[in-house]
Amino acid sequence: MPTVKGDGMRGLAVFISDIRNCKSKEAEIKRINKELANIRSKFKGDKTLDGYQKKKYVCKLLFIFLLGHDIDFGHMEAVNLLSSNKYTEKQIGYLFISVLVGASSDLMKLVIQSIKNDLVSRNPIHINLALHCMANVGSREMADSVGGDIPKLLTSGETIDSVKQIAGLTLLRLQRSSPEMIPLGEWTSRIIHLLNDQHMGVVTSATSLIEALVRKNPDEYKSCVSLAVSRLSRIVTASYTDLQDYTYYFVPAPWLSVKLLRLLQNYPPPEDPSVRTRLTECLETILNKAQEPPKSKKVQHSNAKNAVLFEAINLIIHMDSDPNLLVRACNQLGQFLQHKETNLRYLALESMCLLATSEFSHEAVKKHQDTVITALKTERDVSVRQRAVDLLYAMCDRSNAEEIVGEMLEYLESADYSIREEMVLKVAILAEKYAVDYTWYVDVILNLIRIAGDYVSEEVWYRVIQIVINRDDVQGYAAKTVFEALQAPACHENMVKVGGYILGEFGNLIAGDPRSSPLVQFQLLHSKYHLCSPNTRGLLLSTYIKFINLFPEIKASIQEILGSDNNLRNPDVELQQRCIEYLQLSTVASPDVLVGLHNITLLLFRSLAKLKKKKPTATAEGGEEKEKEPRTIPQAQVNNAEPSAPVPLQVSVGLPIGRSTARNRRLSVNLKMICSLMPPLPSFFFFFFLMKFEAYLFFYLTIIFLISRFFCKQNGVLFENDLLQIGIKAEYRQNLARVGVFFGNKTTFQFTNFTSNLVLPDSIKSGMYKNRGCILCKCFKIWCQSGQMQKLNLKLPVIISKFLEPAEMNSEAFFTRWKALSQPDQECQKIFKAQFPQDTEQVKQKVLGFGLSILQGIDPNPDNFVSSAILHTRNQQVGCLVRLEPNKQMQMYRLTIRSTKPEISKALGDLLETQF
Amino acid sequence: MIKAILVFNNHGKPRLSKFYQYYPEDIQHQIIRETFHLVSKRDDNVCNFLEGGTLIGGSDYRLIYRHYATLYFVFCVDSSESELGILDLIQVFVETLDKCFENVCELDLIFHVDKVHYILSELVMGGMVLETNMTEIITRIEEQNKLEKQEAGISAAPARAVSAMKEMNIPQKIKDIKLPDLPSIGNLKF
Fold first, then answer.
1. Where is this region: Disordered (chain A) (predicted)?
2. B87 and B148 assigned to the same domain
3. Cα B50 off chain centre by
């Protein structure tokens, strides 16, 4: 017997023993640090170390590394060892490199140089070391500089077998890391013919190489099929004595057989009839051998035999052409399902999964259903149970769906946490796919939520809602079942969500029963409200507004909840907003608005469902959002440039509500700006936004925003939607303005490609106002969402009046100037109806905020306002005089403005008119 | 392809680690720890395959392991390898170690890290199975030993003599080493 014990390196042995005798972690670290310091000083010292010493220290470093300490030196010494003539020193050098030096290291150049030298060495054992190192590091750099020699080495007749064997795998490794570096075109046929090599080791390594090459370029290597089949046939039919050393526990060359069978799985069944027959014979022989009594009782024997068998079965499944073989394979696997070896049961379940997908063997697999279910229940190993779940999923079809889903649901109650989520998804998919009776489907999903609510993802419960909405026949049943499920003392939040949604839509279908009268439904849902997350609460609030429509009789109780302090002043902005909006909506809107609203929700959800059929992730929340949007449509000018999908949505949605709102009242609920319920302004003040979410599905309308709000103040929010908030902070002094635009990211993601662009009209740059109305800057911004560029045009509220400076003067001076500006075009007079209550204090604030002074004691009527201001531009200053006379009986105002420039009078008149 | 070969003992102390794909050193140690946690909590009579930990690539990779007395031998492989084949490969590896060290035990792996690496590199290279014929492997190891002895005979002798002189009390030291009672793994489970 050869032994490697008892040679060399005492120092290493002592060091290792020291470490092992350390009583504590600290002592060990201390000892290691001492040793590291010692080695470092030895390496740095003047004395040149001999090869033996270097080898010893490198070994120590390796050991320290294995203990989990970082090694930050010694690399250079290891590289030096490579150039030694001694095999042992070279060997340890290469070992260090392949364990501790990454492909990106600076030392790689030196290493490659050593490899180059060793590759041309006469000594095959040096060549092998170099090849080993290349295979272990396998960097591009290596492939580039020395990879070119490998194919020659591999196919040359002069190379000895052991080098060929290693060269094959080295080439494979380099092909993997940088395939384009070594073109193999001219070597193809010679590489394929390695399959015929005498030496089995060479064939094994060549098979691995060819299999990798075939995956990239199947046509070029097509001729390997017949060679592989004949090789396989020779192995399979050989008696085990023929292969001498490659027989492993009485199985002839099991690794090579596995490799060859894998290789054949890259091609369809051979076209050549003789090759095909030969392959079929091989496979039959392998299946037959499985039935023979074992030649040895050792587990290694059966392992090796079964490794080949499983691979043969995989090939049979892959070819999927011979029903006879497929059924035999299935029966064989069936035997394994009850084998005492856990490994075999595991593999049998896994292979059967593949078999179940073949039409020839699907029925045969189904015969084993009971065994698999037993495995699911009794198997001790979770990985095996998981395979059983996979197989049940694969073998499920319409005929056995109900049973399998039932079994899986039952198992789910006790299943390991690690596989629950996957199981939930599988059950949901099976239930939907094979549902004949949708009441069964609803039951299954609700059971899922009940049993494993935490693992039910949004996709699953969105889907059940979609299906219920689209199938009139289950709506009543769903409402009833969900109502019953909600009565459980503790129910999962997902159940509340589904319940909230379904009752909101179809609660009327069960309202006839006094046990589930509207009020009972509402109270049941509301009893869960306080236990839920804000998200769910929002959904429940939407349900309540739907209830107002469905059951007008409980409107008062719902309004009471919506109006409760807890809700109206909720710290969660979304909830607060919903409550205020819904409350407002329920008071201002007549029943037909609500009906329209309700229909829209349904309509949207249906179209969503249709659009999203393929992708079951349609978001119910998306539906939620949309339900609010249509309200704003009548006031927005829609210039939808988006093609296809969104358009029909928008048309079908926009019209009905448009009419009903217009008829009812001017209902302007600015969704995100709830604090201001302003009456509508002339439409040119409205901008609107069209945002694309997932180009084909989501479109998003948000109304904007009233610049006019900035007429009388300097700071505020200019724009806001779900993604972004834009705020303005401005300062004005004479003709100078400083406007800060603040962008706030409201999402949790980072914006990419966020740019903003400011376009200034000439008048601002030159300091002259030429345009009559407002001086408006346009601010463009672009950002990216879901891979889609979005562009947003906004006007900045920089208007002419911002450059007004209040001026003080006495009565005499005022009237002198007033009279001096008596030309007709210098005066602008407007008479208009009040839009706001004529509260003196508020009007005063607005006048001041607009930039005008308030002069006392000029007009004898205290209700009238007299103001003056100077408008600063860079070149000139323009005086303005303003008189505002409210008439409280008529609720009218008379506004008179005089200034030296006619256009200023007009511009200020237009702006001020809108404010009172 | 084999992504990593790890050997550690029942307490998770690594005895051999070989990665065929580059990982930074700290990640390597984390992978060993993670793998130990995954493997050590399993009973002895469950199956020898399980899905890989998150660090090594998750469910695309499989851990195939065997437990011999005090040591776990774990191979992390992708889907292109036959599970039973790898299990046999572990067996070949251990049998080869057993023949080279004569009744191999954990201590042999500790004191001869380099040798273990050489033996492994005759079996697996760059993540691919190189040689499975035990006779062939042992022949090659023997050749190496012969070379080593020759080289040691020529030039290393003085160095060894010097170091022996320096550490006169080593034999005593070695006797003092407390060897835990390790069952020889070679005798088990073959």
1. 616-639
2. no
3. 20
Domain count, chain B: 2
Structural tokens at position A738: 């400083």
Nearest to A303 among B50, B88, B159 (CB): B88
| Lookup: tokens for B169 | 């009390």
pTM: 0.62
Domain ranges of chain A: 438-588, 653-796, 801-913
Cα→Cα distances A709→A504, A681, A740, A843, A912, Å: 37, 11, 17, 14, 12
Distances (CA, A) of A238 to A226, A251, A252, B134, B150: 18, 10, 8, 20, 41
B186 belongs to a structural domain: no
Would you call B62 an interface residue with chain A, using a CB distance cutoff of 8 Å? Answer: no
> Which alpha helices (DSSP H) does A120-253 contain, by range?
124-137, 140-146, 150-155, 161-177, 188-192, 200-216, 224-237
Alpha carbon distances (Å) from A308 to A243, A303, A304, A305, A313: 16, 9, 7, 5, 9
d(CA A507, CA A363): 44
CA nearest neighbour of A739 among A795, A675, A807: A795
Q: Which helix (H) or strand (E) holds A868?
A: strand A865-872
B152, B87: one domain: no
User: B133 at the A interface (CB within 8 A)?
Assistant: yes
Q: Is A833 annotated as a binding residue?
A: no
* Mutation target vs A (from B71, B113, B178; most A CBs, 10 A cutoff): B113
Residues B79 and B13 in one domain: yes
Mean pLDDT of A433-456: 87
Residue B144 domain-assigned (yes or no): yes
Q: Which two tokens stand for residue B122?
A: 């005759």
From the number of C-beta atoms within 10 Å of its C-beta (0-12, 13-18, 19+), residue A824 rates as exposed
Phi–psi pair at A70, nearest 5 degrees = -75, 140
Residue pair A391/A356 in contact (Cβ under 8 Å)? The answer is yes
The C-alpha atoms of residue A730 and residue A737 are separated, in whole angstroms, by 7
**Domain boundaries, position B147:** 138-175
Instruction: Read off the pLDDT of residues B123-155 as tens digits, 9 standing for 90 and up.
Output: 998 888 888 888 888 888 888 888 878 876 655
Cβ neighbours around A169 below 10 Å, total: 27
B2 pairs with which residues across the strands?
Answer: B77
- Is A56 assigned a ligand-binding role in the annotation? yes
What Rg value do the Cα atoms of chain B yield, rounded? 18
Q: How far apart are CA A401 and CA A407, in angstroms?
A: 10
Question: Among B78, B112, B131, which residue terminates a domain?
Answer: B131
Which tokens sit at B117? 């690496």
Q: What is the nearest CA distance from B110 to chain A, expressed in angstroms?
A: 8
The verdict on A142 touching B (C-beta cutoff 8 Å) is no
Residue B126 near chain A (CB below 8 Å): yes
Same domain? For B83 and B143 the reply is no
Same domain, B8 and B90: yes
Report pLDDT digits (tens) over A54-92.
778 888 888 888 888 888 888 888 888 888 888 888 888
State yes or no: pLDDT of A160 exceeds 70: yes
The per-residue pLDDT for A613 is: 39
A72 touching chain B per CB within 8 A: no
Q: Domain A801-913 is in which class? A: alpha beta
Return d(Cα A477, Cα A446) in angstroms, integer: 12
Are B13 and B102 contained in the same domain? yes
Residues 89-118 of A with CB under 8 A from B: 91-92, 95, 99-100, 102-103
For residue A691, the cross-strand partners are: A700
In a domain, B14, yes or no: yes
CATH number for the domain running over A653-796? 2.60.40.1230
B14 with A86: Cβ contact below 8 A: no
